[in-house]
Amino acid sequence: MNWYVCQDGRLTIISEYFDYNLIEYKFLDLWHDDPNGGGRNDISEELLTATNSGLIVSGYLFNDLLSWEPSRQRLLDFLNRDNILWVWTDSDGFWFLNEGKDNIIKIDELVPNNKMCFFIDGNPYQDHWCYRLKNIQILETKYHLTMKQIHRIFNAYTDKINATKDFMMTTINKPIPSKLHRQILWDELNNRPGLIDRGHAVFRKETDPWQGHTSEFHGWKGIYISSDFYLDSWLEIVPETFYQHGHVFTEKNLKPIITKTPFLIVSSKGYLDYLKSLGFQTFHTLIDESYDKQDKIEDRVRLLVDLLEDIIKNGSKSFYQASRDILEHNYSRSCEISGMWQHEMDLVIRRALDRINHD
Description:
This protein is α/β, with parallel strands linked by helices. It is built from 14 helices and 14 strands.
């Protein structure tokens, strides 16, 4: 099979796998300049006649190809010539799946069976719409890219000794439906008199300056630890990426784990059980975690903030100290996963290739 990998920084994992395993492929740039200015992504001339070939694109590029009828049709023509499309994004593949729901459902009716595969870094609910797709395959990569990336801690120090804040909560205000839980959380925290002042609470726009000390090593500051906030807070409230559809483990929840910080999580229903399935421990022996089992996001947030107030009333420092064994276990488990990560990812790709050969 002839493989084409689009030139996109979001495909590093797959291109590195091909390089390491001596699988030949060709980098392809699908960008076409418009003589009148601008341009767009489209199926290239080389792909118009390709057969027995595989094309690998990111979620961004896939959505772009579907957004324009001519490129969408040329993509379908490509697949109907016994070719394969993989949609792979090194992180946030599950997010792209959900954001592209309408287009994916429509194109599922048109593509040949098992000629398109979506790789996702999350765990959809059992009733998720993706399981009703007839022709498109869904494969879970299980672990988010950040499981490999962010175990380095500024000054290598995590012990909290004289924290001045009961909690921290830092997130970006994105006024889109999939991030509704962040606004609900922020409103609930502010509705409790004096509570917001008990924490390092940041709800900023994407254009606002970053708050908290982070390393300048990487262009994406969000992947790094705000070390001063973590050392000065007894626990963290984590608004994860999703509050519906399913579960995904991202840098948002990994950061309290590797800084050995207790956490309360605003996410999809049952997220704490998902963490347990990955080998982590939660704090159910110390606190009431029934907030995570509520159907409505408003109820999950309300009960979580009730719990936060109870923890503060009973002593946030005491909760932190009582959590130490759990924190040590979770830190060790995160290091295990980080060490396994490359092998697990390689297995996902190998099995996908084997499935092609078997078919």
